[in-house]
């Protein structure tokens, strides 16, 4: 992985924090709040839309290719359907 940043990289551009701060926790709270009150189907739809919005924002196919490979890494291959 040459282009994908996998170290914690959350924050607001231009802001510096003098004490221990966990902007990753803030993102997690935003994500959970975004799902609050949604059905499972609507939650899955929101996740899919979020992935596409963020992929569009990133735009760099090298980064997206590496992110897909990293996300898929360690996930067991689904059994193939019987022919």
> What radius of gyration results from the CA coordinates?
16 Å
Task: Give the total of beta strands.
Answer: 0
Principal-axis shape equals: globular
Proportion in helices: 40-55%
What kind of sheet is the major sheet? none
Structural class: mainly alpha
Secondary structure tally, helices: 3
Describe the structure.
It is a single chain. Helices cover 53% and strands 0% of the residues. It has 83 residues and is mainly alpha-helical. The longest helix has 19 residues, at 40-58. It is globular. It starts with 22 loop residues before the first helix and ends in an 11-residue tail after the last helix.
Salient structural properties:
83 residues; 53% helix; mainly alpha; 3 helices
Ordered list of secondary-structure elements with their pairings:
Elements: H1 23-35, H2 40-58, H3 61-72
Quick structural gist:
This protein has 83 residues and is mainly alpha-helical.
């Amino acid at each position: 992985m040459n282009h994908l940043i996998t170290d914690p990289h959350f924050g607001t551009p231009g802001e510096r924090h003098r004490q221990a701060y966990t902007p990753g926790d803030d993102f997690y709270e935003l994500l959970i709040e975004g799902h609050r009150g949604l059905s499972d189907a609507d939650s899955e739809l929101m996740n899919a839309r979020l992935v596409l919005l963020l992929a569009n924002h990133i735009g760099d196919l090298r980064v997206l290719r590496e992110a897909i490979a990293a996300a898929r890494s360690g996930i067991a291959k689904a059994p193939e359907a019987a022919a």
